[in-house]
Fold these 4 entries.
Entry 1:
Amino acid sequence: MLSLARLAVRVAVCRTAENIQKTTVCCFHRASVSKSSQSTARFEDKPEFPGSRSRYVHKLEFIDPESQEGVPVYRVLNREGKIIDETQDPKLDKDIVMKMYKDMTLLNTMDRVLYESQRQGRISFYMTNYGEEGTHMGSAAALDPGDIVFGQYREAGVLMWRGFTLDEFMNQCYGNMMDKGKGRQMPVHYGSKDLNFVTISSPLATQMPQAAGAAYACKMQQKGHVVICYFGEGAASEGDAHAALNFAAVLDCPIIFFCRNNGYAISTPTKDQYRGDGIAARGPGYGISTVRVDGNDTFAVYNATKAARDICLTQNRPVLIEAMTYRIGHHSTSDDSSAYRSVDEVSYWDQQDNPISRLRHYMLNQGWWDEKAEQEWKLGSRKMVMKAFAEAEGRKKPNPEEMFTDVYDTLPPHLEKQRQAMKEHVLQHKEHYPLEQFDKMT
Ligand SMILES: Cc1ncc(C[n+]2csc(CCOP(=O)(O)OP(=O)(O)O)c2C)c(N)n1
Ligand SMILES: [Mg+2]
């Protein structure tokens, strides 16, 4: 009723007003008629629904995922360490390739020592990186040291590449008084403010929305930095993974989502994790540029990460990389993978498709490495690892009072009470506590 009354008033005004008013109203009317006829014509050609880009079809057809070709795997080096297509050769300096190889093998040696250390009851827990070294060094080398890393937990090589020392790794795993986290975290939960590596938080996918937020901050700061967020294909099933990918896409965040698809989430193989074509197939669904690479090819990972970084920086957009690899070790020291996969399967990846041997072949082909250098490095690097290991083991544990520090600026009264009670109790029953192994209480 109200709109009819308004229309009547308008018509009346149109009839009685001066010419200029008449002209204005009539023009408005003409314009609206022609606009609506134009859009009617467009409606017939193309759907105008907000939120999609497509066309009309007149035959009922479901999209059959089986009929879609899988996302291809980008590769630079073949298994014999030869460049397949010269145009893709990253032409890295000998020093860089040597550092890649030395860090990959050093990580391998450190893993063996710390894994054994846990088996002998010297540390509480450990996770190896066997088989995934190429994803670590290939991606880390393509980044700027100022780029912020959010890891899951199986990316120790990225931290090693950035300069985290063997002492620092060992101190953290031993939770001794030199550990940056003051012994409060489980082993492998590394972090380094100096190296822009955010401390590991193992509830799966927590790092992903945090990383998207940090990337948004990078965009606002405009200091030429991006974020890289590592996650496993298992973690990609968490709701937080969806939130992170969608936020980053919608808010145009400069972030590289780097999925390490190593075939398993503890004992769950990928076939029981998802039905689609891995994680890469999800990228376009989020409107994110995506590439799938051979994660055992360090150069392919390097090229993909470098190109992704450029996209992030120059276009302020996220990129998704899915690096296909294989977890050669058990999930962690709390797992025995022989219960759910065959020895043959594991040895195929260990012997036939291993990132370390592939890079070694490349170096041998280049004449940059030989058996003598290999043996010397093996011995020398093991010595370095054993030295750091022995020193970390010999260091005292942190002062037990550190349990109460670094959360509150001023300790609240109830925690102060607990701190006092702990101290009195421990000092009163000294004989039951190995206090000589701890830094002295104040
Ligand atoms: C929210 C949450 N659920 C379950 C776990 C237990 N958990 C630890 S690691 C892991 C598997 C993760 O697999 P993936 O993301 O593929 O990483 P990978 O270990 O293969 O590197 C699970 C289920 C956890 N840490 N957090
Ligand atoms: Mg996995």
Entry 2:
Amino acid sequence: MRAAWGGLLSKTILFSAPFPPPSTLVAVVGVLGTRSLGIRATKPKMEKKNGLEREAVRKKENVINSNPKVNRIQQLMNGHSHGGWEKCWDQGLTPWDLGQATPIILHLHQSRALPKGRALVPGCGTGYDVVAIASPERHVVGLEISDTAIQKAKELSSSLPNANYVTFLKADFFTWLPTELFDLIFDYTFFCAIEPDMRLAWAQKMRDFLKPNGELITLMFPISDHIDGPPYKVSVSDYEEVLHPMGFQATSIVDNELAVGPRRGREKLGRWKRSSVIQSLL
Ligand SMILES: C[S@@+](CC[C@H](N)C(=O)[O-])C[C@H]1O[C@@H](n2cnc3c(N)ncnc32)[C@H](O)[C@@H]1O
């Protein structure tokens, strides 16, 4: 079964224009955010879904299966490896792009629940999440392998008030060497985009790029049973398998009740710290 970004969604639901003014974002998340108090903690292992929930997820995947854009993306990726991403951007094949920041990261930012300092968003695409969490107290680096995506991100962010607090860099996450370490790394739809055999290298980079007491936040998506990719299916144990050997432990894993449209029920928010730091806090 094939699945996709569930990206058939949001432009119709919330925003038609890319990079809405921050006031719009605040208003929308203000509305969505009232529900976020109900964010439900789950065990770090994937919980079993009941029959109805499984059926709902299967229906969403079936709808998405028929998305020809995803099939085309997978063909491009199979044929071109890294260059495939540039081709996707070049051809406008970006069904993952929400056209807005993901509401949960904006909510965490607005509720002052994110570390300050330096933040990194790898595989940042158009950079909505980068801009959303940037502030005078937090400088955010958006890293992208695609020139087209970086150009788009720069153009879209240039006129925004917090443009001064973002840097967009074109580089390969796996070979890039930052000049300074980070207090926060936010991964959304990057883990599921890379080849599964790169996940251990992904975790090593997370360890290497974070300050010792830095925090990794993973918005895990798509939690499903499909085969093939990108996007490759993910599960909480997929993250644990590569993050535990690097000394990371989850400080919380919760269902993302602010997930947008078809992504609902298929996202979990994981917050991770290196275990030596967790032990010293006890
Ligand atoms: C599925 S998209 C997600 C984009 C963005 N996070 C979002 O949610 O809209 C994955 C992104 O990762 C980028 N990417 C893939 N491999 C990369 C690498 N090795 N280094 C940096 N970026 C990469 C792709 O160009 C693509 O824009």
Entry 3:
Amino acid sequence: MDTDLLIVGGGPAGCAAAVMAASVGMRSVLIESGDALCGALRRIPVVRNVLTATNGPDLAAAIGADLARCDLCRVELGHRATLIDAFDDRVEVTIEPVKTMKSVETVEPVETEEDAGSARTAGSRLTAPYVVIATGVGPLGPEGAGWLGGVAGRALPQLWEADPAVIDDRTVLVLGADRPLGTVARAHPELRARLVVAHPPEDAYKTEEIRRDPRVELVAVRRLELRPGTASAPITAEVETVEGERRALTADLALLNLGSVPAPPAGAVVADRSGYCPPGSQHPGVFTAGDLRSVRFQRIATAMGSGGEAALGAYYASLGLPTETGGPPTEVGGPPGRTGGG
Ligand SMILES: Cc1cc2nc3c(=O)[nH]c(=O)nc-3n(C[C@H](O)[C@H](O)[C@H](O)COP(=O)(O)OP(=O)(O)OC[C@H]3O[C@@H](n4cnc5c(N)ncnc54)[C@H](O)[C@@H]3O)c2cc1C
């Protein structure tokens, strides 16, 4: 065995798993495909639902410092887990270096004498009795949104990646009502943009935070068809609203805000019919944590809690004690896509 516990994904869930594992004396190797830990947190300017944290970058820095102090965890940045194999007595994780890695910003890999294997060889395999999979979710592309037409071949940026200066003083057609809209509105009260948010009815429950924002116009639609256009010309779209009315929407630019889809590595990670990977359905050596578990529980605090639980699950299993890996309900939501994101 290379270590006591392998952890795939260096977001809040994976990092919490590493710290919890160390607290009970388990060595771990954490594999993160990005060039820094907690990349998602670095893009959240304002946080209001996490104890002691008010913004993502500071929280990411604090977590990075915690991991740097964690002698029992070796962090391998810039490596993607491509395959998980689970056997009766062990799990194996195949990892590949990520070629586009730019720099190592926060945590240098910590080598300990006990670390038998190095993760730095192309296509190498790491072996341990248990693995925590905490790879989070990725953005849902327009091809996964059945209500959206005319998007093929159009390069539409993601709302959560957009520069606020590009939005200011403009009319923006936001495609989908996923939660990054609330993040943008909360983080930039000074923005004078008009945000026309076209969304399928299934997204209505996500609009609570922004529905009273005077900059936002919500349009619940059955169908939206973008008209052909160029990047520089105003955007126009034909919509059929949920009431059956036909309307034309015009905007200076269009941004995607469709939701997210789970991003597990290939192999032994079991997904339910919505594509998410509930802890209770996994091989005894595989523990899932964070956003990957469920369409509904996608929050920083729940990711951390579930990461800690996953590591404790592995610890109790190593002692031969029964573990409960029930996790949140798994039958919520439809297929990945229209209900993506929490
Ligand atoms: C715009 C935006 C705003 C948000 N605002 C809030 C908020 O205000 N409050 C809140 O509670 N939550 C918020 N969230 C949600 C929050 O970011 C997530 O719930 C949280 O980050 C989930 O943690 P995680 O560890 O499960 O996944 P992630 O943070 O996504 O971490 C997963 C990690 O795994 C890595 N990875 C993926 N695949 C592989 C692989 N094959 N091999 C190796 N590494 C891999 C990724 O690079 C990533 O670093 C927001 C999300 C977004 C996008």
Entry 4:
Amino acid sequence: MKYSAARLLWEGLTGHKGWGRTWRDPEPKTHYDVVIIGGGGHGLATAHYLAKVYGIRNVAVLEKGWIGGGNVGRNTTIVRSNYLLDGNEPFYEFSMKLWENLEQDLNYNAMVSQRGIMNLIHSDAQRDAFRRRGNAMMLHGAGAELLDAEQVRKEVPFLNFDNARFPIKGALVQRRGGTVRHDAVAWGYARGADQNGVDIIQNCEVTGFKIENGKVLGVETSRGYIGAGKVGVAVAGNSSKVMAKAGMRLPIESHVLQAFVSEGLKPTIPGVITFGAGHFYVSQSDKGGLVFGGDIDGYNTYAQRGNMPVVEDVAEGGMAIMPMIGRARLLRMWGGIMDMSMDGSPYIDKTHIDGLFFNGGWCYGGFKATPASGYAFAHLLATGSPHETATAYRLDRFKTGKMIDEKGVGAQPNLH
Ligand SMILES: Cc1cc2nc3c(=O)[nH]c(=O)nc-3n(C[C@H](O)[C@H](O)[C@H](O)COP(=O)(O)OP(=O)(O)OC[C@H]3O[C@@H](n4cnc5c(N)ncnc54)[C@H](O)[C@@H]3O)c2cc1C
């Protein structure tokens, strides 16, 4: 079924009886050309592009829970392509271009909203760093503006300019950045993949791999054995656990990141604002809630819920930069498990096991990468070679010394 204004009008007039299922609920087959493990944004996008762009349609996405139950439905919905390094910026700009055409591509309303992202500047050194970053962005066609303090004040007068511990000295702005309704992205990609013949199988946990003579032959699941020509793993915070079943140890640590939503307010914040000096970022959802977050919880965990010290830290960050947030009531909060890589950049790569491919290490930033990650992973699975924008995301880069240390803070996940 094609979604359109005419269809909506027709269904409105006829009691909404004609809407079909958004995707099928098939029984798993005994064998697929490609099995994708993980029905998050990245796994579903991979399946969509495999079928649509590369013509590989005998594909299954195996999800242990439900579509959108992982980080794709838990993030703070921010998309941007404001990176500095060559290994990253072309990839994230490719992603931004895919976001800009996503709703047409999927025929699905993902509420892509390019309301702009503003990274606040608090010191002369930070201004220099952001000027360099802005120049790199412009070289790749991403667009960037450097604002002084007065220009920032005009756009967001409610910030703490006058009594702040970290006075605002300006901002780096990307007008094309913004937000996208996160779970609609999962649903849209699921629908797109399903329409091209991909089987999306929920409540199907992968419990092991069948590997013989260095080649992967299939996966053991809670719904039985499924054979596969190739297997792509895109399980985000569960990466280390799943790849351990194939005997691999990854340069990844799992940490919790929390998100918060306030009660609905009248339109207050025009776009996304980030406060690097205290680590706090905030935007406003279309329902009016302030959506915000801060640091990861400091220790390793697979628990999908956060802890109070970080709640306090995020609240302090919010109060420091935007004191009026203290008047808003917190509606809800939740946690998601982050696959933190050692240099803050992701992996999209083959493994030493023939036919087994890995996508992960997305840290805080994998939502904005969803379209490009899916596209590049589909390219790798289909052709065996990396997509031109993802050549740097190698698993062996710590051995070869080719780290992509975007923030220049070294190999410590809690710093990225
Ligand atoms: C609170 C929070 C805020 C964030 N904010 C942002 C943001 O503003 N912008 C941004 O760019 N990024 C953000 N991120 C990061 C982003 O959400 C993730 O990097 C990205 O969603 C990860 O990829 P995914 O969507 O495929 O993951 P997921 O949705 O987690 O998908 C992985 C799936 O694999 C499944 N799985 C795991 N093990 C198995 C198994 N054995 N068998 C079968 N299935 C399995 C899981 O159930 C899960 O559904 C945030 C994350 C969190 C938690």
